[in-house]
Amino acid sequence: MNQASSPQFVVTDRVREALAVSLRGCDELIPQEEWVKKLAKSEATGTPLRIKLGLDPTAPDIHIGHTVVLNKMRQLQDLGHTVIFLIGDFTSMIGDPSGRNSTRPPLTAEQIKVNAETYRAQADKILDPTKTELRYNSEWSDPLGARGMIQLASRYTVARMMERNDFHDRFKAGTPIAVHEFLYPLMQGYDSVALKSDLELGGTDQKFNLLMGRTLQAEYGQEPQCILTMPLLEGLDGVEKMSKSKNNYIGISEDANTMFAKVLSISDVLMWKWFTLLSFKSEAEIAALKAEVDGGRNPKDAKVALAKEITARFHSAAAADAAEQDFINRSKGGIPDQIDDLSVELGEGALLGIGVLLKMARLAASTSEANRLIDGGGVRIDSNVVSDKGLKLGAGTYVLQVGKRKFARVTLG
Length: 413
What we know:
The chain is an alpha/beta fold. 34% of the residues are buried. A hairpin with a 2-residue loop joins strand 9 (379-381) and strand 10 (384-385). The longest helix is centred in the middle third of the chain and has 16 residues, at 138-153. The strands form 3 sheets. Strands 1-6-5-2-3-4 form a 6-stranded mixed β-sheet, with helices on both faces. Strands 7-13-12-9-10 form a 5-stranded mixed β-sheet. It has a two-stranded antiparallel ribbon with strand order 8-11. The protein has 3 domains: 3-230, HUPs (Rossmann fold, 3-Layer(aba) Sandwich); 256-331, Tyrosyl-Transfer RNA Synthetase (Orthogonal Bundle); 340-412, RNA-binding S4 domain (Structural Genomics Hypothetical 15.5 Kd Protein In mrcA-pckA Intergenic Region, Chain A), CATH 3.10.290. It contains 16 helices and 13 strands. It is globular and about 85 Å long.
């Protein structure tokens, strides 16, 4: 479609506001001038834009780092646009090579089905499910067939495919690249053709795949989509991107108390980036809060507000309030209202070693780990620090504590 011949639409204040929402926290908006034209046309005609996010269900659960793009989708959804949550059940069987230095093993159909159902439930915690178009790319990818796949592949060159960094680096290093890996960006791009997408979102590592959608839409005579990339969220350590493998993550299915406490553990500097990428507060509200902190207000107040907002989103406002109180109790050396109970029957006069007991209470993975925790001063019994790894306990009820967040009430009988 020739955009130059299309009518010009007025850029109103509402369009400018929508652009500001789009740009908030984003890494790149490509091309921005085309997005402004799409917003202006939508405003003038009353036709919502189609905004797409595709996720491959490669794991059964997601952490809040994954929700950065979902948050952006919700912001655009609240402006009245149509958001499409696309589950890549077909592309998961190929395996996304993005950022890989080796071939990614594809998932089985059974794994994909289980993970996809979990993804949908988790996405509903952020997107408005009544206003979200849920799609699976097997809808149009399976019917494409071998003939359609060959015709699709004819629309892109090997030379352009090799411009992709991970393919280029692997080829240069002599690392194998399987032919089916070239199909992944093609199929992701074809998703945009099938859905007639106006905007596609993704992480910065997805830029090549997102641009493929623009190329193929032009090939099929459609107005090319714009693309919006969001930065990868740093984890709890403030250094590495959030990842389960680095244990610096917050799972969105974690309990409220743990979620709240983990948010409070981030640095004062990282907190403001999290506000931008994870909070639904307006930029004006965040700027006002930051000005108060710069003016002398305790930054912990702002962090508590962020922790409560995130916890309430995935649980409830009441759960967030309870988590805040639980954190206060712990910080004062108090015991949480709800902790695990364990009863162990002992023979008359028998004693049980502290290391074994910590393992039985699931406060340590092994007795050797329990010993390391004791050496580090991280174990308490009834609020008293344990320093003796040889400590043995007899009949009675004890409150065991490891670190700031792990408790168990143990009754030895």
